[in-house]
Amino acid sequence: MPEVNSPERLGGWTRFVTARPRLALLAALVITALAVFAGSGVADRMGSGGWEAPDAESTYTTKALEREFPASQPNLLLLVDSGSASVDDPAVAAEAARLTERLAGEKDITGVGSYWQSKAPALRAEDGREALIAARIEGDDKAMGEVLDRIAPAYRGAHGPVEVSVGGPVAVRHEMQTIIQEDLLRAEMIALPVTLVLLVMVFGSAIAALLPLGVGIVAILGTNAVLRGITEFTDVSVFAQNLTTALGLGLAIDYALFIVRRFREELAAGADTRAAVGATLRTAGRTVLFYALTVAVSLAAMLVFPQYFLRSFAYAGIAVVLLASAAALILLPAALMLLGSRVNSLDLRRLLRRGDGRTGGPVQLSASDAAESGSGWGRFAALVMRRAPVFAAVTTVGLVLLGLPFLGVKFGTADDRQLPATAESHVVQQHIRDGFPGSPGGGLEVLAEGAATPAEYAEYRSRIAGLPGVLRVDGPVTTGRFAYFSVLPDGESVEEESQRLVQDLRAEPAPFDTSVTGTAAVLVDSKHAIADRLPWAVGIIVVVTLLLVFLLTGSVLIPLQAVVLNALSLTAMFGAVVWVFQDGHLSGLLSFTSTGDIETTLPVLMFCVAFGLSMDYGVFLLSRIKEEYDRTGDHERSVTFGLRHTGGLITAAAVILAVVMVAIGTSRVANTKMLGLGIALAVLMDAMVVRSLLVPSVMKLMGKVTWWAPAPLRAFHRRFGLSEGESAPLPVEELSEVAPERDKITSGA
């Protein structure tokens, strides 16, 4: 059998990445420094919205109302609290009138109105102690934030007999953006040191532990620069920065773990540095390439959705995956070329171990590596396969039960309740929600276009006022060929009755063109847009995943198994999202306000991210199983080998990624908290339950038929397929001759 580590086997890619390692690292340092400069200030150019579909009726109507009737779309609210006095008290009314006049004189402010001008009941609290001044700030998110920063300090606080608080959609978005930036910095400060400690525990060597962090930092800084460039052409959500940090650290660490681990295995087997790098790139390097493709495809599927909130995660995710894999496949080998056996230097755990009398060659695997290559995971795999029907049935039923709460999911829209309960804009909106009549902020606007007589407007108003679920209709307010009606639902803004009212309003005939917007209308349109594009997104993920896993394994059944088991691994995440964040369990412990629903786009985002990450670990396990099956032809022993050689590493990688996601989950913004904690749970369930229990038990039950493929596809795979193993399969009877020597090498003996 040819020597896999022989220098003559080095390929062109190995020669390319190792020819000038110092030059490669210097170039990376320069590019990273430029990325820091290019990506500076990226958060200030990002938006905090993006949940609405840009081509939806509600979006068109909102823009038309902003253009024709600025006062109909206020985004700034001043909550005026008169204390123990009535808002109609002369002194209170005089001060409120002065504030209203002053606000109307501010630059970039339009559509100023107040309770004291209109006496509208919706602008006055039911207890008569609070009332509202409403206005609209012009411009994009960045411009509106700058205006808010300029004027808010002058209005916030005590003004004679009243106390003023600042709220409204602009304040909510601006406060959310500020909090996300602060929380992201804190998450990085939590994740980096904890991750470094875990990496030292996994590798034993401080030098080896620093390499994955370096890859992650390069990926994060590079992605920030990419996102900064994308903001010049399209909207990008500020939430995408959280995914950049999480995936940048998580995936870079995964990729570097697999590559550094394989490199150390090759050194331990006696290869020189260049040969070890070559063998690593031919094996773990190819698998990393598959990882990157599967995750990138899962994230790219979000590009089919029209909401820029989802598209932003595709931009960030694809960039960070490609940069992390490029750094792992170019910079990391260059660093390993320079380090050689010094990659095992600074074994900090040696201080905690007593001498065990071990001697050996110049390079030894760390204790964790030796443990992983030992019999622990092998015995566990053997146990699982001996009781395969039991483990398969119990695990599947358990995962399905954990996902049952998702059957009761209710979809809603993001609002101020994402923010901490103490955030000023949240406090203002909560006062309005609890103390003002009807459903403040949840009203519907009906835009009428075309010439009409007062009688026609009156007749139409009478008909829509009689629709089920309508509390009150105001208007019409007219200008030229445009008019609008304000419809106040009798209930919460996004409940089923309000959504049915949107459909009724859109179906109601009129002598002019009508269109509807408002919170419930945006939700209806968003749900429709997602439902319309979801089959395409899922189809892209499934088809490309099937193709990639087939190219890796040459089997028709393994790709199908991978997709089904991956989906099962997500059930716990979706069940927990509903049980915790929708139903409000643990809301006190986790410090968030439950809205009673889940923002419509979040399950899609979490599915795409978690599915891709789960495939990461699935591909790694399958690649080692395939490698051993190609060497021996023994199905069961190959499954045991795969779990024995990846179980510890997959678990370590999952724990580290979960730490990063939990750090993101410490955010004070509820949606970010849900994203971080939900994906952390999915990753842990996939690594510790699906990969450890379900995959080996299912592969045992399927037997050697697992590797079946029709003859044409087998020929296709022989020509185009890739895998970690490069040797031809051995006959099963030769297994007894190969296994002892292989085990001796991989255990570092």
Termini separation (Å)?
A: 21 Å
Structural class estimated from helices and strands: alpha+beta
**Inertia-based shape:** elongated
The proportion of residues forming helix, as a percent range, comes to 55-70%
Report on the biggest sheet.
5 strands, antiparallel
In oligomeric terms, what are we looking at? Answer: single chain
> What Rg, in angstroms, do the CA atoms define?
30 Å
Number of helices: 26
The largest beta-sheet arranges its strands as 2-3-1-5-4
Strand content: 5-15%
- Average pLDDT, rounded to a whole number, is 83
Brief summary:
It contains 26 helices and eleven strands.
Descriptive labels:
749 residues, alpha+beta, 4-stranded antiparallel β-sheet, 26 helices, 11 strands, 63% helix, 8% strand, elongated, disordered N terminus
Task: Report what the structure shows.
This protein has 26 helices and eleven strands. The protein has 749 residues and is an alpha+beta fold. The strands form three sheets. A five-stranded antiparallel beta sheet has the order 2-3-1-5-4, sandwiched between helices. The longest helix is centred in the N-terminal third of the chain and has 35 residues, at 169-203.
Topology:
Layout lengths: L11 H7 L2 H19 L17 H12 L7 E6 L8 H15 L4 E6 H4 L11 E8 L3 H15 L1 E3 L2 E6 L1 H35 L2 H25 L9 H29 L4 H28 L7 H32 L27 H7 L2 H11 L1 H16 L7 E2 L11 H12 L8 E6 L4 H12 L4 E10 L2 E8 L6 H12 L5 E6 H35 L3 H13 L1 H12 L4 H4 L7 E2 L2 H31 L2 H31 L4 H33 L8 H10 L14 H12 L3
Parallel strand pairs: 6-11
Antiparallel strand pairs: 1-3, 1-5, 2-3, 4-5, 7-9, 7-10, 8-9
